[in-house]
Amino acid sequence: MDGNGRWAAQRAKQRWAGHAAGVEALKLVVEAAPLHGIDTLTVFAFSADNWRRPKAEISQLMGFFASFIGSETAQLIECGVRLSVIGRRDRLGPGIVAAIARAEAATAGGTTLHLRIAIDYSARAAILQAANMPAADVSRELTIEEFSLRLCGDLTTSDVDLIIRTSGEQRLSDFLLWEVAYAELHFTERLWPDFGPQDLALALHDYATRDRRFGAIPEQVSAVECAEPKSLSAHPR
Ligand code: FPP
User: Fold this and answer.
1) Residue 16 — pLDDT band, cuts 50, 70, 90?
2) Is residue 183 within 6 Å of ligand 1 at its C-beta?
3) Host H or E run for residue 30
4) Is 5 near ligand 1, meaning CB less than 6 Å away?
5) 132 catalytic, yes or no?
6) Ligand 1, closest atom to CA 67?
7) Helix residue ranges per DSSP H, 133-222
């Protein structure tokens, strides 16, 4: 969800105003995603590197996350959205950690969309943590599926179909590095607060034109593998 700061600067506003507009953009995208058959949406809200930002901006961002997670829970339940937060929790404040736990429990039954918010997230750190987990059986090597399960908790989130990067940036920035092995990449100049359902539709149209062969030749690829993306990701730097 990159470009909040530039959006604010273009309007001679402070950065928090860009993040506030980013929250509104997120709500619209969450509403639109299931209409396109997307069942998992992961948004990169705060990277482990974002702790380098000024303290005041970090605390504004944490305030936005806490208030979204707290005040949107009822709406998420009504829309059948299951909320999960990925990333480290030990560096977050106790208030937001408790709000996350409450929202995750309250929305656990949602089946329309799995909304995953990455906060204090680093893909490399997550991969390292999974690699360092003690193995039940040390006499044999892990399979890809077993490692995915360690890393992601469940296999429904282990393969991302489409990455959308806003604001003209063209990097992966330590986001879901294992999960994006076969992801299609969509880059747009649109700043996140301006990114709306029409941009989502455009990204999905772009995705639909891609020839996904997974290393095979076209005749071998089933219609199922070429279908609409199920797992979508949007992330900041
Ligand atoms: C990157 O843009 C954006 C972030 C680090 C924060 C993203 C947060 C939101 C969209 C707020 C809402 C999120 C939730 C989960 C409620 P930037 O600030 O780096 O923008 P810039 O590159 O233009 O400076």
Assistant:
1) very high
2) no
3) helix 15-32
4) yes
5) no
6) 16
7) 144-152, 197-208
Q: Residue 64 half-sphere exposure, CB side, CA atoms within 13 Å?
A: 22
pTM: 0.92
The greatest distance separating any two alpha carbons of the chain, rounded to the nearest whole angstrom, comes to: 61
227: left (phi over 0), alpha (psi -120 to 50) or beta: beta
Catalytic residue among 4, 39, 50, 159: 50
* Phi, psi for 139 (deg, rounded to 5): -80, -10
pLDDT at 32 over 80: yes
Q: What is the pLDDT of residue 199?
A: 98
What's the rounded Cα separation, in Å, for the pair 237 and 224? 32
Task: Report the separation in Å between the CA atom of 3 and the middle of ligand 1, taken as the mean of its atom positions.
Answer: 7
Question: What pLDDT was estimated at residue 233?
Answer: 67
How confident is the model over 149-162, as a mean pLDDT?
A: 92
The answer, yes or no, to whether any atom of ligand 1 lies below 6 A from the CB of 190, is no
